[in-house]
Design goal:
251 residues, alpha+beta, BirA Bifunctional Protein, domain 2, SH3 type barrels, 2 domains, 35% strand, binds biotin
Length: 251
């Protein structure tokens, strides 16, 4: 059963020991009119990742989804995902993990072997879903999954956890910090994008981005509001990519 999880943050938090997916529960609450609500779970049995991928969410992680009703046109909603990536990165850094962001929203541990330029193992991911009418957002669910105190043998390949990097973290403090930081940035897309740039593992890298309409290869030179990656292609063209899967290539 859900219990209240007392936090000093501008969100009401519903806590579950175990749940299918916090994003699914948050969508249910959104349908009932909830606003500034967070669903948090110790374990998820049916969690979802981006691009219909499965997401492993064993006990010990920070699995949460925020329900928001921002007064935004849908095209600006990606800035909320960037804000969540920044907030997660800052909470991880405060826990002692040198984290950075791979576009658009993978939180990675900084790769000590910079020669590979690929970014380190994945610590956290974000899945944003929304519904809108008449050009306005009706609700947004921002789902954040952090491998906090997840043991090594429960992690997917290419993933790491706070436990693996620096030892266990106080998850209540981690969630508090994450939500406070998210609250600072959520109404200010410019500030979210600027903070994102400062924490980026992608800018300056040679990248390949798979988009719905094909592949873009070149140097990642900037991120533009509300979250598009600007890629300079080998023909010196600047292309804005709004969504896709990004791979860092060897220089
Ligand atoms: C990704 O593919 O990188 C995004 C992963 C997002 C996982 C989180 S965990 C909390 C929330 N509930 C879900 O079912 N998914 C998101």
């Amino acid at each position: 059963p859900a219990v209240e999880f007392g936090l000093d943050a501008p969100f009401s938090v519903e806590y579950h020991d175990a749940i299918g997916s916090t994003n699914d529960r948050a969508r249910e609450l959104a349908g009932e009119g909830a606003d500034d609500a967070v669903v948090l779970a110790d374990e998820q049995t049916g969690s979802r990742g981006r691009l219909d991928r499965e997401w492993s969410a064993p006990a010990g992680g920070v699995w949460l989804s925020a329900v928001l009703r921002p007064d935004l046109p849908p095209a600006h909603a990606p800035a909320l995902t960037l804000a969540a990536a920044v907030a997660t990165t800052d909470a991880a850094r405060e826990a002692g993990v040198p984290a950075e962001i791979k576009w658009p929203n993978d939180v990675l541990v900084t790769d000590a072997n910079a020669e590979t330029a690929r970014g380190g193992k994945k610590l956290a991911g974000i899945l944003t879903e929304m519904e809108g009418e008449a050009g306005r957002v009706s609700w947004v669910v921002v789902g954040v999954g952090v491998n906090a105190n997840v043991p090594a043998d429960s992690l997917p390949e290419d993933a790491t956890s706070v436990r693996e990097e620096v030892g266990d973290v106080d998850r209540r403090a981690f969630v508090q910090r994450l939500l406070e930081r998210f609250d600072d940035l959520r109404a200010d897309p410019e500030a979210a994008v600027e903070a994102w740039r400062d924490r980026s593992a992608t800018l300056g890298q040679r990248v390949r981005v798979e988009t719905a309409t094909g592949e873009v290869v070149g140097e990642a030179v900037d991120v533009a509001v509300p979250g598009a990656l600007v890629v300079e292609t080998d023909d010196d063209e600047r292309v804005r990519v709004h969504a896709g899967d990004c791979e860092h290539l060897r220089p």
